[in-house]
Specification:
Elements lengths: L1 H22 L13 E3 L4 H11 L5 H19 L5 E7 L5 E7 L3 E7 L6 H7 L5 E8 L6 E7 L9 E9 L3 H12 L7 E9 H10 L4 E8 L7 H5 L3
Parallel strand pairs: 1-9, 4-5, 4-7, 7-8, 8-9
Antiparallel strand pairs: 2-3, 5-6
Length: 237
């Protein structure tokens, strides 16, 4: 009897959750994307890299090389949303240079396992960046995202900016949960920058409706329901 009661409550919660996600889709076709969403401009270089990344005949070595390059561009764009302060330094010629430096620590959180594809690119852009991990998987019965593993820097709430990485985002369910986990750990929305190789319009609409203050950087816009494939090719399994 107790088991039946728990199962009924879980089913009700799942039904309400799916209904809430469905309601977030309202207006996604007519409303423009949030101004906080940046889609990389398709330059000839970017289109050339995308061609190799998307080509099924590209070797694993070339795929990893060009995907890492692409991730570097995504991370560099994401860093444009980091809060900076003015800083004057002395050049090797003895002249002052008036530049910028982050106001505080910038850390990164990978949504496993897709977000781990950003690791090599992150080390090239921010070699000493502290990182965290989230493992979010969809329940096979309900389709709801579930948090299975969490490892974050203890002082993440004090960091000036937190970069959040996932290789792909379609429905936005995992992205919503990942951002919520950071918010629950004291990270303000406006300090979160979500970066992904590809995203669907519905997922972006949902994410920015619930968390309007976060910044989002996207490499490519894709159909709203796209199978996850990037991590399979990147990790060769």
């Amino acid at each position: 009897m107790v088991t039946q009661y728990i199962e009924r409550k879980l089913l009700e919660k799942s039904t309400h959750h799916r209904a809430a996600l469905k309601s977030l889709e309202a207006g996604f076709e007519s409303e423009p994307l949030s101004e906080r969403v940046v889609i990389l401009k398709e330059t000839p270089q970017l289109k050339g890299m995308n061609t190799l990344i998307q080509d099924i005949d590209t070797s694993s070595e070339d795929f990893i090389f060009y995907f890492d390059r692409f991730c570097c561009l995504l991370i560099e764009q994401a860093l444009n949303n980091v809060h900076f302060k003015e800083l004057t330094v002395e050049t090797s010629s003895g002249f002052p240079y008036h530049g910028l430096a982050p106001k505080g620590e910038v850390s990164a959180v990978m949504v496993l396992r897709g977000g781990a594809t950003f690791e090599a690119g992150l080390r090239r852009v921010i070699p000493d960046c502290r990182t965290g991990r989230l493992l979010i998987q969809s329940n096979v019965r309900t389709g709801e995202p579930e948090l299975h593993y969490l490892k974050l820097p203890k002082d993440i709430s004090q960091h000036e900016s937190v970069l959040l990485f996932d290789s792909q985002m379609s429905s936005g369910g995992s992205g919503l949960m990942a951002v919520q986990v950071l918010v629950d750990h004291g990270v303000p929305q406006d300090r979160i920058v979500f970066a992904t190789y590809s995203a669907g319009r519905v997922g972006l609409h949902r994410l920015t409706k619930v968390f309007p203050e976060i910044a989002v950087v996207v490499g490519n816009m894709v159909p709203d329901i796209e199978e996850r494939w990037v991590e399979n090719r990147y990790f060769r399994c």
